[in-house]
Amino acid sequence: MQPFSIPVQITLQGGRRRQGRAAFSTSGRKSNTDHTDGDPPDGHKKLPSSAGEDRAMLLGFAMMGFSVLMFFLFGITILKPFMLSTQREEANCTAIHTRITDDGTDCAVLCGVDCQGQGRYPCLQVFVNLTHSGQKALLHYNEEAVQINSKCFYTPKCHRDWNDLLHSALDIKEFFDHKNGTPFSCFYHPDSQSEDVILRKKYDQVVIFHCLFWPSVTLLGGALIVGMVRLTQYLSLLCEKYGAALRDAAGGRGPDMEQHRRSREI
């Protein structure tokens, strides 16, 4: 009886082993099916985000929108007039004569809804001599003063107090009288025979630089914030995928090692 008992025992152990393999294979397929049905594919996963990251993204987009608005406003109010303005070169001027006209110049007084009327302001004229050409010219404060009134050095804020406006004009006249014979910097148009010379440029290269620099910094800062947040979210998603792959690999090696150990015992 002993020779027949050994094959039966081996056959029973082999059947149990095959049954265990079938059960493990079925359970493995079931777990994989459940995992596939429960979680969306990796290609359709959205980048994880938190409340802080959402606020940072909002700040970045707000900075970029504000910079675009700054470019638009500065382009209309400063850049366009600078490009269309007459290009002038720097020269040396010498004041030769100053005077205040007796008749004055009319202006509109605006001090409220119930306070409107006509006023007058003294017209200060400053005549200078261009040192490089010896040409006599009428000096103005800037380009805007030439456009408003080409006969006067500047146009003060109009109000009804004539004595106050006269004192301001006299102070400027005294300043140029003390500069009589002393060269100072001025700007003229070399391609024109106009006698208008300005003391200062309203929009120079420094103003244009600031108008372009600060909106550009704001735009770059906003784009950098958005880019850093998106990079952080992408790296977080990669770490999550890598961790899931390691867990799956560790779970798959456990049953294989147990099966190998049981086969060796048999």
From TrEMBL:
It comes from the Eukaryota. Residues 13-50 are annotated as: Disordered. It is a multi-pass membrane protein. Its main location: membrane. N-glycosylated. The chain crosses the membrane at residues 56-79, 207-229. GO terms for molecular function: calcium-activated potassium channel activity; potassium channel regulator activity. One of its GO terms (cellular component) is voltage-gated potassium channel complex. It is found in: Membrane. Regulatory subunit of the calcium activated potassium KCNMA1 (maxiK) channel. Modulates the calcium sensitivity and gating kinetics of KCNMA1, thereby contributing to KCNMA1 channel diversity. Belongs to the KCNMB (TC 8.A.14.1) family. This is Calcium-activated potassium channel subunit beta. It comes from Molossus molossus.
